[in-house]
Amino acid sequence: MEKKIIECVPNFSEGRNMEIIKRITDSVESVDGVKLLDVDPGKDTNRTVVTFVGEPEAVCEAAFRAAKMAAELIDMTKHHGEHPRMGATDVCPLVPVSGITMEETAGYARKLGKRIGEELGIPVYCYENAAFEEKRRNLASCRSGEYEGLPKKLSDPTWQPDFGPARFNERSGATAVGARDFLVAFNVNLNTTSVRRANAIAYDVREKGRPKREGDPVYGKIIRDSNGEPVMEPGSLKAVKAIGWFIKEYGIAQISMNLTNISVTPVHTAFDEVCRKAESRGVRVTGSELVGLIPLKAMLDAGRYFLEKQQRSAGVSDEELVRIAVRSMGLSDIHEFRPEEKIIEYVMSGDNNELLTRMTLKAFMNETASESPAPGGGSVSAYIGALGVALGTMVANLSSHKRGWDSRWKEFSEWAEKGKALQEKLLMMVDEDTEAFNRIISALALPKKTEAEAAARQDAIREATKYAIIVPFTVMETALKGFEVIREMVEKGNPNSVTDAAVGALAVGTCVRGAYLNIRINASSLDDREFVEDILNRSAGIADEAKLKEDQVIKIVEDILSKNSRK
Question: Considering 204, 272, 431, 433, which one is annotated as catalytic?
């Protein structure tokens, strides 16, 4: 199953004592499954920003341990710095990266805030998407008055903390825990050294825009409202902050942007808009750079966007989509863009060399043939299914580029993308099947000396066995959808590749039947008869439907081959 990944970016009120910072980051790394990505201390601000990622439960545990360590080591009565702050752990935002919604992330943030408040005795305010009321969504509102203003704030009935005691914690202050969108720091390179021109472009695109002026748009008098504040003319991009600056090291001016919500303004949209605004001012964009890390989805969306602008199929591999995005936005213009170092999901999986899907074909075959019971029929079935759907995807991609079919590129691109999504899911299930097997082995190894231990072991075996049934059932459901792509390609795709699609149908059929056998053998040892009866009935129905669809595809292909042989 797709893993849920979140990022945590806590800010600690210590940027000078590296020993304290190290002890806090060590507490983060003490949690299995958490990857520490960045530690950014600032001496002037006396503040350190830490970034780590992982699955939600592990990240929340790491965040709690870090907050606990900060409460032990940082004394806010002695803290001074340039940045606004109200606590030892000042802010602790959770950010959804992949496989998880903002609503779910906000739920985890509230649980984390509750634990910090109750176990550490620190007042906690929930902000942004985790806020319980509108006035607390804005972090600046929650932090108004800062540390020094907390005694007064906590005595105000309208500003009681969401969690923790409504009393001043002199040593640790208060903490804001929230859920927010992923923020991307993105700089666009210009073929000019002029900061004034770079700023003009930045003001064109940033959401805040620029002050309205009377007459001349540059030198005219600024128009002000009844409160004396400048009336702003909004820029063209929502959820974007931008400024122009000159980078002496590079010898160029840049548009430096913070994309505060990449679901509203993605990276590729910001890049193209800066290109348009720059060109209108006689300036050219030469490339760009990403500061920090970015979710894989943002790069894949960018790759699809640029392929579609070329009227080419976007149903290609993730690696190719990333390459297209990097080339299209010139992300290697200044420094080489290394996906394994810049894309969060790739950074997280960098150390996991045990995955079957990382093996060569030969290594996978040899591992399957070894005396180890895993990988077995389940993993092989999923892989066969992935290859089968991949053949349908291949025909869709070939069809989108067929001479004379230019007007149909979008139609085939959509089919290719459908196929690619299915094959990626099936590929993921190759390793998931082995994980299911490992769960059963782990459950069987649990102690059973006491009655309580025996009961816990039996429950663990039952749940692991159910999971070992759900995985191949998911394989069956996913592979069945592949017939839709394959049949469409047999009937409407490139006629020269009709037998490739037929081989795909045979492979997908084998995948479904193999997964069905896996379900039946695993279900035979499960004592939950209601679950077993339901899953066997549903999987038998999928197996029958798959056989029917496979036969229909092969019949169509045989008819086509027979007609061709008579010509």
Answer: 433
